[in-house]
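Aim 2 progress update. The chain analyzed this quarter is reproduced below.
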Amino acid sequence: MEASNVFVRWRPVPPTQPNTPEINKVHSELQNSRVSISISLPSPGDSSWKSGHVFNQVFEPTDGNRAVFDAVVAPILPKVLNGDSCSFFAYGHSGSGKSHTILGYDFEDPDNFGLCLAAARYLCEELKGFNTGIVREGHSHSSMSELGIGLRMYELRGNAAFDLLNNHCKCNIRQGYDGQTHIRGETEVLDGGRVRVRPIVTKACWSFEDFRQELLRGLQLRASGVSTVHEESSRTHAVLELEIVNRALLDAREAVVERQSELVPVAKRATDVYIEEQMKGLVRTGDGKFVPNPEYQIDHRRIDEAEEKKAEFEKYVSDAEEHVHCVFRSSGQTCLGGKLVFVDLAGAEYYHGSSLSTHGSRSLPSPQEQKEGRQINTDLLALKEVIRARASKQSRIPYRSSPLTMVLRGHFEATGSRDSYSAVILTASPAADQYAATANTLKYGNLVGTSKNR
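Predicted structure tokens:
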């Protein structure tokens, strides 16, 4: 078994602060293909810290996004093209370079793309070859079999999710009867009493340019705010899901939503009929007790008819769900359903006395900022425990510890013969005045990296 996948990326000191004192950092020789890091402050006698040999690779400030992509993401993309699920997390304090790594700030130069955009570009090129093969082999309904990327983008704040590709619509996070976590938007009341609750919107992208435009539109809606740590701080976890899809799969999933909406009024009527008949079969006595009503015979035939109608529509839902599985089985494309998940985690802040900064001074965080920070840190600690529990093959994985880990459960848990892969990229600042925050980031990665992978 191999160690968990943890990478470290040192950000450069901002060019506007060329004389900033820097942390002393030493990367040890490889041991079992892993690197150890030692850090200390430039002042003699100050505390120092050293990790175990747990890090896959350390990226220097001079390494750009292209170098990170080539080493961390590119080697894993064949797994996605085999239908597997792979997740990448950027962890670090505000201003350490998480968003720059995952999302990037240059959407034109491929060498400067964030990991998400670079991965989409790679997949789009590969899918062109798959689609050429579909046409060459003369598949019937080849337009339904054409492969593209389904993009879902949302951010998590507290116990709610916000759909970035659907006007920042607020969504609820719920665990369903199937044990899986579902993210659902607002309830729509349709004609005939139908009720539809849509999942997070999937935008189908049939070209790289489609993907880039959808990504840009979604990022414009992401919430950010000024904090005492960073002027443009991401106070939410941004989740970007890329899935290899075709039109047949998207249509099949849409049919499930429609059949579910048709079931709601029928199921409600079955419940109403049952309650109505049961209430008619009771009468209230003078002392307030309910006893059988001798003057009314419960109409079991009416109840049975309503239940039969409900069962009929439940079968429609079941058939629609089975058709989704049929699309996978009949597609002949092993890449269909392959997923890439990029998570730009909210900044990991530590508001305990002087731990926010060791040198220099910073404003104390506001009460609201402290409240947000506590929720964010709860999420991040829960994520660490889930990664460690999975890696060490524990019988119980604490997914329900936070909304973040509940949402990511489906990506961690591979189905059937498919496998999953996850990696954490620690973004760290070499500035001496951020020594405590950087040390906390590396300690987090050290704890994750000491586990054993599946």
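The longest strand covers residues 147-157. The domain at 5-246+334-451 is CATH 3.40.850.10 (Kinesin). These observations will guide the mutagenesis experiments scheduled for the next reporting period.
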